[in-house]
Amino acid sequence: MDQLPSKDQIRQWITDNPGLASKRDIAKAFSIKGGPARIELKRLLKEMEQEGGIQKRKRQFREAGTLPPVSILRLLPPDAAGDLFARPNEWEGEDAPLIHVIARTGDPALGQGDRILARLEKVEGEAHAYEARLIRKLGTSAIRVLGIFRRGHEGGRILPIDKGADKEWRVPPGLTLEAEDGELVEAEQAGPKRMGLPSARIVARLGDPSGPKAVSLIAIHQHGIPDQFPEAVLAEADRAEPVTLGDREDLRHLDLVTIDPVDARDRDDAVLATPDTDPGNAGGFHLWVAIADVAHYVTPGSALDREARKRGNSTYFPDRVVPMLPDVLSGDLCSLHEAVDRPCMAVCITIDAQGSKRGHRFTRGLMRSRGSLHYGQVQAAIDGAVEPKLEPLMDSVIRPLYAAYAALKHARAVRQPLELDLPERKIILSDEGKVLSVAFRERFDAHKLIEEAMVLANVCAAEELIRLKRPLLFRIHEEPSQEKLDALREVAEASGFTLAKGQVLKTAHLNRLLAQAEGTDQDELINITTLRSMTQAYYSPQNFGHFGLALRNYAHFTSPIRRYSDLIVHRALIDGHGWGADGLSAWDVESLDETAKLISDSERRSMAAERDTIDRYLASYLSDRVGQTFTGRVSGVQKFGLFVKLDETGADGLVPIREVGREFFFFDADSQTLTGADTGLTIGPGARVTVRLAEAVPVTGGLLLELIEIDGGALPAPKRGKAGHGRGPRKPARAAIAKRKVVRKRR
């Protein structure tokens, strides 16, 4: 194991490098490599944090009681002299420092409640004093709420729609925006509390909460996703024109095709595979991956660029998409439609018969798609049901692509990326927005073919920019923490499986665990628990590899229509190859860290909005079936109850602790179990259950369930006189429970 630095050395380094103080930065500074050494460093940092010597905030460590050099601040009212002061937007503990905001010529007008991103400098001679200089105004910090308006004699009330939000908001007369009773509204805090309730001003009326378009609209407003383009952005997009060949490489002779979902809203990648005629590469292929050249239209510093960066990515809902770019670009000029010339960034990758990459070449070109295909028809064609449209493409396009995929599958099997099997739900809506059915998306080899081609193209982009020594944004996925691995191992062992211990974790070890569970009752449990043990992927200018894909170098290159990260990679390639003046700007390079954080956060915002929307649609779909019984599996356990994933729809519902059984249940956080004090019944993740749907609330997406059976049998009755939740378990029962480390009762 690498020699770890002392606590004093770490503390001094953090003080000297306030802007580079993540665990990864510290590991790099002290040349700490390998899983065991990194785990030990993490333990040491946690120990220092518990001792109070350092603080951790959003992956960054800093000296306790200090602020990072770039912070988000909330402005206070001006003082008597008119000077502006601010407090940190997020501060743990009391006595937050006051920060003097230094106004400069050209800064926008600032006032109380504004949120700003600012660069901080300590005031010499004063321990907790700072001066701040504006980087960017972020907006106002007024607290907002989304809810149902109920009209009253004096204004009205707003009932928040957030799950778990039980506080009403009072709307005074004159601040209702003439909202109707029962209407969905957005409001912001308008004054101090009265009668124990915060005062609110309605700022937007969103219509009938049960209306066909309200479900995704709720998520858009609730998560603050920008869904209206400013006029300057639309005007800039409207001025865009089709691209001519110019200095580009002419790729229009290639039989490139796009393969997407049948309901695809944009087409940003095209593929082609041709056999390699080199005798030294028998059985090999040239795999072309051509990607929409968004960088040509969205240039650094433009209104389009600023808006795309703010959005970070497109957000997809069952009934609509909130695009990163206006439709004239995302749906037309940048989209690789059939039989029209489109600008592209392309890579030709040479692979051998085993799918290993032998080389690659990037180019900026002009292409013309031979077909806008979808996964189902391509899979049907290779299986023998060929549509007339695909007949001319079978020998030149479809069969060579599947042959190249066979080689790529071999390379994937050697690399051993994480092989999770988690079916994806698909909500089928009527034209009016009503949920018709809930299904699980089919997974064809056609999907996997495109995925493997895109992964390989992303690897090539990262390797090319490393070779060119150009800055870029890597897609990072770090290995799981030791704590999460221990929890996964406990679940695995309780289910009768094993996970290797005492060695550097590889995805192959996790794949062996998943293979053990495949086809058993614990299959879904092990897949879900493995997924939950993973860290969240993010973007970073520093390369720390992609654990889940088992790749050392990985960058997103293949979806610039819907991801800003890919646009940055395209600009870096343009800059590195000298393909034009629309490559990375000096500001792009200087702001890479900030951009990485911004788009990582916006990605999580979109994921949360998409997940909440699915929950609401599922609750709407099940609202007519209240009182019916369903089978499912316990997906999570907390001291307040059980989370159950229903077999039929994949919907998640809560069984409150009061509905679990007629006895006290002891919660064991380590094994994630509830154990009955009197019956000894132990319930944990993976247990098969039958539940009754007690409540379905479409506006919040909440499902409440009642537990009827567990593992095929009725709930055991506690001994007479021992029922109830109001008392703790008897001492003998508590002692027995403390020794048990099981996830569910083994029979």
UniProtKB/TrEMBL annotation:
Positions of the S1 motif domain: 627-708
The organism's place on the tree of life at top rank: Bacteria
Annotated region described as Disordered, given as residue ranges: 718-747
EC number in record: 3.1.13.1
Keywords for the protein's UniProt record, in alphabetical order: Cytoplasm, Exonuclease, Hydrolase, Nuclease, RNA-binding
Stretches with biased composition (Basic residues): 719-747
Purpose of the protein: 3'-5' exoribonuclease that releases 5'-nucleoside monophosphates and is involved in maturation of structured RNAs.
Family from the record: Belongs to the RNR ribonuclease family. RNase R subfamily.
Catalytic reactions of this protein: Exonucleolytic cleavage in the 3'- to 5'-direction to yield nucleoside 5'-phosphates
RNA-binding listed as a keyword: yes
Protein's recorded name: Ribonuclease R
Annotated organism of origin: Gemmobacter nanjingensis
Gene: rnr
Primary location class: cytoplasm
Subcellular location per the Swiss-Prot or TrEMBL entry: Cytoplasm
Keyword S-adenosyl-L-methionine in annotation: no
CDD domains assigned to the protein according to its UniProt record, in alphabetical order: S1_RNase_R
